[in-house]
Design brief:
Structural class: alpha/beta
CATH topology of the largest domain: TIM Barrel
Strand content: 5-15%
Number of strands: 14
CATH class of the largest domain: Alpha Beta
Largest sheet: 9 strands, mixed
CATH superfamily of the largest domain: EAL domain
Shape: elongated
Helix content: 55-70%
Radius of gyration: 55 Å
Number of helices: 24
CATH architecture of the largest domain: Alpha-Beta Barrel
């Protein structure tokens, strides 16, 4: 149900995201299109306007001699830059390829036109200057007669008429030689007048030729073609955008209807999920969420946590289906109990096999009575009749906040104390937790500051010579060096054990490399043997020339995973590494399994050795172990040699090696 609702919600959000994203994407594309489209249209119209201006300015110069050429040069430059900018415009190239091709044609035509314009200006400028000069210097020339002056005046009028009308035929009527006779060539003004007249007559036909060339080039027609093509294509694109917009509106309407249907179904499912969020699906009891809500309503709450003892064994032996039936039956009994007791209570399933009873304004005696009565009732019932299956239950009670956490702590105390079914939380329980937290903190700091330190204790032969050293872990806390042993359970629960083992292995490796005359024996737990990284480190670093100088000690109590341990030992023994079973005699492993592991040494547990000078039974056990070892070619090591008497007795029964404070106290590397 939750997955289905989550899927529907996700689907709705995906659709909504898709719609919004698509609308935004379409808006962005259309906005970009119209912005670019308007810009290109503006630029094309600018090309057209510039063409008109250029033609106007050229014709203006042709008729009016006072017009400057600068405007034409600026227009040509602007037009060339605008053409190049349009040719670099990817929008024009991609959306209007036909217009882009026409633009390339226009560029070539305009380049040719520009050449003719400059050729035209090359002749138009001196002609205009000559006309101005001829008009302005007429008062200063000296004709040969008054009649000649009149002819010169008519010449100027004819020249101005030619400039205005651009009449080449009229120009041909002007004969230079005729007017040269009218002037005295010795006068400097007369000479200049004739020179400008000669320039006018010579350049004017050329100017007129290039003017016609300029006017004949069809650049304006090309621009008109570009504009028409652009507008036709733009209109098609606008129609396309309109169709897409209509399609989007239709799709949105369809999706809106679809989402409305989904939302309606979702409301129905949400009611179901609200129930599931507050109630346990299997037992139909309230869950942790409901517990937190109810807790706020209680003025003086008290909590009982009930737990089915060894419930995991029921699941492992009978299967999860039977385990679920046990939980349902337990919940049913709890509901019956809640309905008949004279107190208002709320009942919950907190998870797995853990159940809760929440009450208000009850003292501890009432809570204990409720817990014991229910436990007695449920333990006297056969919950699964087919298998004649009954259960035992433990309980924890708390009136101190946080209720759930403290009741859980009390429950753990009850499970660790087989004499009591129900335990009430006390503040001293927290002291153990605080101590464990302190240990965790100390180990973390020790790892961070490289304060996990190996100490070394000698293992002696019968002659009092050190045969090898056992590596013992120590923790430096402040200025104090402590044994690692009190920390082991805590670090295993907090998954820091791997780091400690690796640190000891690394430092042991350094010692072996620095001192070539010593052998080391290093402790390994089952967790180390099963850890891939620890095994890889050992295989990579202790299988070469160092192998024969290294031994590993494995606790007798930790060889339950026989196959893994056996494979580990076999692989390293082929390289020359030796193995010892540590604390032999403290566990329950059979002698046969120890022999099959093919270890090299048996380290006899200190609980046997320490009393052999006083306890005949301990001495008898020692002799049995030594005889067993000799028959199977195993060397023995006696731990806990704490005085001379114990040492001598151990030697006398045939122990091979000895270890203990009497012989050697653990020391740092610098003192061995």
């Amino acid at each position: 149900m939750k997955k289905a609702i989550a899927f529907k919600l996700s689907f709705i959000f995906i659709i909504a995201f898709f719609i919004v994203g698509f609308i935004y994407y379409f808006h962005k594309i259309s906005e970009d299109y119209f912005i670019n489209s308007n810009k290109v249209l503006f630029d094309l119209n600018t090309l057209k306007r510039n063409e008109f201006k250029l033609t106007y300015n050229i014709l203006y110069i042709n008729f009016y001699i006072s017009k400057s050429n600068d405007d034409i040069a600026k227009l040509i430059k602007r037009q060339s830059e605008l053409i190049d900018a349009l040719l670099k415009n990817d929008f024009l190239k991609n959306f209007y390829p036909s217009v882009y091709k026409e633009l390339i044609i226009y560029k070539k035509a305009f380049k040719k036109k520009k050449k003719f314009v400059f050729e035209y200006l090359k002749y138009a400028l001196p002609i205009n200057n000559s006309i101005l000069f001829l008009s302005n210097t007429l008062p200063y020339v000296t004709p040969v007669s008054e009649n000649s002056r009149y002819k010169l005046l008519r010449l100027i009028s004819k020249i101005i008429l030619i400039q205005i009308s651009n009449d080449l035929e009229l120009l041909k009527t002007i004969k230079f030689e005729e007017y040269a006779k009218l002037l005295d060539k010795k006068n400097i003004y007369n000479k200049a007048f004739l020179n400008n007249l000669r320039i006018l007559l010579e350049f004017y036909p050329k100017k007129n030729y290039y003017l016609n060339k300029v006017l004949d080039i069809s650049t304006l027609k090309i621009i008109e073609k570009m504009l028409n093509g652009y507008l036709i294509n733009a209109n098609k694109n606008i129609i396309f955008f309109q169709k897409v917009l209509i399609a989007i509106i239709i799709i949105i309407l369809i999706l809106f209807i679809f989402i409305s249907i989904l939302v309606y179904k979702l409301e129905i499912n949400l009611k179901k999920i609200t129930y599931l969020a507050n109630y346990d699906q299997l037992t139909e009891l309230k869950n942790r969420v409901s517990y937190k809500d109810d807790l706020e309503k209680f003025k003086k709450p008290s909590l009982i946590i009930l737990d089915i003892d060894r419930f995991k064994n029921i699941n492992d032996y009978f299967g999860n289906k039977i385990g679920d039936e046990v939980l349902v039956s337990f919940a049913r009994e709890l509901k019956k109990f809640a309905s008949i007791i004279p107190y208002k209570i709320e009942i919950y399933r907190f998870g797995s096999d853990e159940f809760g009873i929440l009450a208000d304004n009850l003292d501890i005696d009432d809570m204990l009575r409720i817990a014991h009565e229910f436990i007695k009732q449920v333990e006297n019932k056969v919950l699964i009749e087919k298998y004649d299956l009954s259960i035992s239950v433990s309980g924890g009670i708390s009136q101190q906040k946080p209720l759930l956490e403290n009741a859980d702590i009390a429950l753990k105390e009850a499970k660790n104390d087989w004499k009591r079914k129900v335990v009430v939380f006390k503040n001293e329980f927290n002291k153990k937790i605080e101590e464990n937290l302190k240990k965790v903190d100390e180990i973390k700091k020790a790892l961070e500051n490289d304060n996990i330190i190996p100490y070394f204790q000698g293992i002696f032969d019968k002659n009092g010579n050190i045969y090898k050293y056992e590596v013992l872990g120590r923790v430096k806390v402040g200025n104090e060096i402590r044994s690692i042993f009190p920390y082991l359970q805590v670090v295993k629960e907090n998954k820091m054990y791997y780091h400690i083992t690796l640190r000891i292995l690394e430092k042991s490796l350094e010692v072996l490399k620095k001192k070539s005359d010593i052998n080391l024996s290093i402790n390994l737990a089952l967790e180390d043997i099963l850890d891939g990284e620890i095994k890889s480190f050992i295989f990579e670093n202790f299988c070469d020339s160092l192998a024969k100088r290294v031994g590993f000690e494995i606790l007798e109590s930790e060889i339950g995973n026989y196959d893994e341990v056996d494979e580990f030992i076999k692989r390293l023994k082929t390289k020359g590494v030796s193995f010892a079973i540590d604390d032999f005699g403290s566990g329950y492993s059979s002698f046969v399994r120890i022999v099959k592991l093919k270890v090299d040494y048996i380290k006899i547990d200190g609980s046997i050795i320490k009393n052999i000078d006083k306890d005949p039974t301990s001495l008898s056990i020692l002799k049995t172990i030594v005889n067993f070892a000799k028959e199977n070619n195993l060397k023995t090591v006696a731990e806990f040699i704490h005085n001379k008497e114990v040492f001598e007795i151990a030697k006398s029964v045939g122990v091979d090696y000895f270890q203990g404070f009497y012989l050697h106290k653990p020391s740092p590397f610098e003192k061995i």
